[in-house]
Description:
It contains eleven helices and no strands. The protein is mainly α.
Amino acid sequence: MKIKILISIFVISLQIFINSQAQATELTDNPPKSQIKSIQILKDQAIISYKKGNYKEALTYLENIDSNNFDEETLILTANCYDKDGNTDKAVEYLQRVLEINPKNSYAYYNLGIINFNNGNTVTAINNFTTAIKANKKFNAAYYNLGISYYNVKAYKKALKYFNKAHKLNPDNQNICYNLALTYETLGNVKKAQKYFDLYDFLSNVKN
């Protein structure tokens, strides 16, 4: 259950990055305006295909863009398409390219954390999520997934710390409340566990 929750947050955060950076494209070698327009059209088509779950189609659009004109957003989009298409090695390659351009790109570290977690490399994932948070102190999903990672290695007090940080940033998130309750229960704090189970039930009923 927790892994499904994790993946869902991953997708949401990636879409936020894509949308928020859409007006901030930087291209190398100053291509002419007509070329920039063509590149943007291909990127837009790739984003549409990605959101529809057509990852191979999205990659086809991206492959028609000169890789020298890939900005951070396009590299992350390409990485995510490869990851969703099952090619995690390629995904990691593109995320590393992002970090060569911008060593403080929190989304690149975050996505590396997702890949490492899903591949069973939990300790590396913890390092990735921690670095993402250092680059972006308000990265709610990174706090949450850091909590998931610590819970996975039975470091329950550390898991609790990061679930609480995630909850502070997003108090109405059902998944955070559920995992807070689960962690408090594991640590033997029945009263706190019940509080967050009740909040989880309340939020579930409100959304339904």
